[in-house]
Amino acid sequence: MRTIVLKEDATLSPKLKKNFPHSEARRYQADLAETIYRELSSGSTNIAVEGPTGLGKWSLVDVGTVGSP
After folding, report:
1. What is the pTM of this model?
2. pLDDT score, position 60
3. Are 35 and 64 in contact (CB under 8 A)?
């Protein structure tokens, strides 16, 4: 397992932003969605996401999987 420290001020790429369910990403959300997308695009098949209540894990996993292989 690998731990990834998320960036607070990341932004969503246009590809992910068009599928994001809210008008703006909160702190850490953009980096989490981009990280999930990047990991899936590079061939990862198992990703575990742990974060506090309210981070938006479920919608971010959904957005991060859009367009990945």
Report:
1. 0.79
2. 73
3. yes
Q: What gap in Å lies between CA 40 and CA 19, rounded to an integer? A: 16
Q: What is the mean pLDDT of the chain?
A: 83
- Is residue 4 included in any domain, yes or no? no
Task: Provide the domain limits for residue 36.
Answer: 14-65
Whole-angstrom distance, CA of residue 52 vs CA of residue 46? 20
User: Residue 22 corresponds to which tokens in the numbers above?
Assistant: 């809210």
Pick the closest to residue 64 from 44, 39, 37 (CA basis).
37
5, part of any domain: no
Whether 56 contacts 31, CB under 8 Å: no
